[in-house]
Design the sequence.
């Protein structure tokens, strides 16, 4: 299930209130929004989560204006994000439900049942299932061919250690190879996959160095040209397979039991002679600076998570659980991501000021 973030809610509010984003922020209680969204993330089930979202927004009234209208619009956005449609007819029944929520007379199960009765989810197609199966088979076949160490011989396969973003990178790399007509997946396709994935540490670091998908794609065509490959299974090159090995080694060295996008990027950087290494050298004068930036972000993230884990271990209240630890670490990672994005924006603005001969510290 996919979830809305604070900024998704603000975007909906701005459209409904017909105001600029800055005005929407001023007219919204952000703390309330965060609490409601946190409750949604803790709620299993599509109808139940949508019900928690609707009840929370209507009851807490975080929007200055037509709160009910904004609340319903946000719920519609949430259901659409999850390939579902929420019917609002008859409107009188919706109004009655909103009245009961406001008065505190509607229970959570009642709201969830109301939503479930009007929720029309788009069925999962054979194409969707085929896509998931294709990714699984591609990864399993590729990993089965890799050189394994003693841990792998005990039955632990690398595929099982890929994070979801890392799996998306591999799927995107395959699609990029198909689009370019290439009959293999090389380090250059993995680099494109890291950029197109758009959410991990790797993508943000590469973006900070001005490395974009169009620039990488243009250099790929310049170096390799376009192919005329036909549909079918596309194998990984030996260098791409080595990238997975290097990435797994980078993850283990840092005590991680999951291979993430940041480890894939570090794996690519260990082979400077591959096409991806050549491209990175062309697009940045110092590829080692990319590695240092990735390592710095990983280290900062690890120190912060260790601090939270230590705090929870010392919790004397007796209610420290795996669920609570997982939730707090997830929230911490979200805050760190936001801080990193803000830091990058500030650095960009300072550079712009310097380009116009303006001292940013004046």
Sequence:
């Amino acid at each position: 299930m996919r979830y809305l973030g604070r900024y998704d809610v603000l975007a909906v509010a701005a459209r409904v209130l017909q105001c600029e984003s800055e005005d929407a922020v001023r007219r919204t209680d952000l703390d309330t929004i965060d609490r409601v969204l946190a409750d949604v993330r803790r709620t299993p089930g599509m109808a139940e989560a949508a019900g928690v979202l609707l009840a929370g927004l209507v009851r807490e009234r975080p929007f200055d204006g037509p709160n009910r209208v904004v609340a319903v619009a946000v719920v519609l956005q949430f259901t659409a994000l999850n390939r579902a449609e929420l019917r609002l007819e008859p409107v009188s029944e919706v109004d009655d439900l909103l009245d009961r929520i406001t008065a505190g007379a509607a229970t959570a199960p009642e709201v969830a049942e109301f939503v479930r009765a009007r929720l029309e989810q788009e069925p999962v197609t054979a194409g969707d299932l085929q896509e998931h199966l294709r990714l699984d088979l591609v990864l399993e076949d590729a990993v089965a061919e890799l050189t394994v160490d003693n841990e792998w011989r005990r039955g632990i396969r690398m595929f099982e250690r890929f994070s979801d973003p890392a799996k998306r990178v591999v799927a995107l790399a395959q699609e990029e190879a198909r689009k370019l007509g290439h009959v293999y997946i090389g380090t250059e396709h993995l680099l494109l996959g890291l950029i197109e994935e758009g959410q991990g540490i790797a993508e943000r670091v590469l973006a900070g160095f001005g490395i974009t998908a169009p620039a990488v794609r243009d250099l790929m065509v310049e170096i390799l040209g376009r192919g005329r490959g036909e549909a079918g299974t596309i194998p990984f090159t030996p260098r791409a397979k080595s990238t997975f090995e290097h990435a797994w080694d980078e993850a283990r060295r840092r005590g991680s039991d999951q291979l993430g996008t940041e480890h894939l990027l570090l794996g690519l950087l260990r082979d400077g002679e591959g096409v991806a290494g050549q491209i990175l050298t062309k697009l940045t004068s110092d590829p080692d600076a990319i590695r240092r930036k990735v390592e710095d972000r990983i280290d900062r993230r690890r120190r912060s998570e260790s601090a939270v884990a230590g705090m929870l271990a010392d919790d004397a209240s007796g209610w420290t659980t795996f669920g609570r630890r997982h939730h707090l670490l997830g929230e911490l990672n979200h805050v760190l991501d936001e801080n990193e994005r803000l830091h990058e924006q500030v650095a960009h603005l300072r550079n712009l000021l310097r380009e116009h001969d303006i001292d940013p510290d004046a």
